[in-house]
């Protein structure tokens, strides 16, 4: 049975989530250069091109700057949700790395498929292209040998796979319809935004944006099968979008309705309890990524990144706003938490930032990504 719970504290709702406004923000003060040469690895960026989706591989130098290495076709097409301008997938997690098996998963929204690549340093080898089990896939999540994809159209759905030596095997019993209101215009605000496993792999969490104004949690049994129906926590006016977790396994959500960052505890019964709620003061706060005890939120409507530091318990303290290129969307952090890379969908580029000791950001580069205006999906190794 579905259950509903309020987010507890009322927050102000942004008048226009889709508005693009000029950014005039100053990074937090005090820089502290990081030591170079630690944990260097590649950066992979998805183009989501409707003429043929591609993954662009970049070499990451010791100073954090990027240099293009190669372009890899997914053998699928990108897609465009109605009404989208800088974020044609309107999602987080469209490009996902499986560190355990050294596999990279990409969604092909226009082909209703996902592509699996093996990762060999900066090189990719296309291993498999398989149906997403629904329409318009936008997000992928991995835990051990289980993979789930989120399909955005036709009410939304999740589809599960088992990873075997031969590749992904779709499990029909691991399909769940979300039954969201995805037909309301503008489409990109009403489709689901992300699917992710909880850190222990016991649950799937789905953000629904304005299609359901909710966060849906599917408990998983020992075989990986989702519950027949999710536990749903909803609130009118909310638009939960990007999802991540803190070090204690608490859920951190970028909510584009009030333009806020929310922190929840997932209870034993899979209901959620609000622990913290802080406004970004920006527009279209949709994507969130973690770097240790810091969180960085992309604000597509303000062309900024908002930084937050987790203090006592689950509380987040603002670190300030840093300007980016036009259309701040998906982002990723290096494994050593020294660099943040942010896609700018308005110009089809990646802005690189050094993360200073105090959590402030120092811009180090802007790197164009060919054929990637309004594209989403970035992985940093």
Description:
- 1% of the residues lie in helices and 48% in strands.
- The chain is mostly beta strands and 381 residues long.
- It has one domain: Methylamine Dehydrogenase, Chain H (7 Propeller), CATH 2.130.10.
- The strands form seven sheets. Strands 3-2-1-28 form a four-stranded antiparallel beta sheet, with no helix packed on it. Strands 4-5-6-7 form a four-stranded antiparallel beta sheet, with no helix packed on it.
- A hairpin with a 5-residue loop joins strand 2 and strand 3.
- The N terminus is likely disordered.
Short description:
The chain is an all-beta fold and 381 residues long. It contains 1 helix and 28 strands. The protein has a single domain, classed as 7 Propeller (Methylamine Dehydrogenase, Chain H).
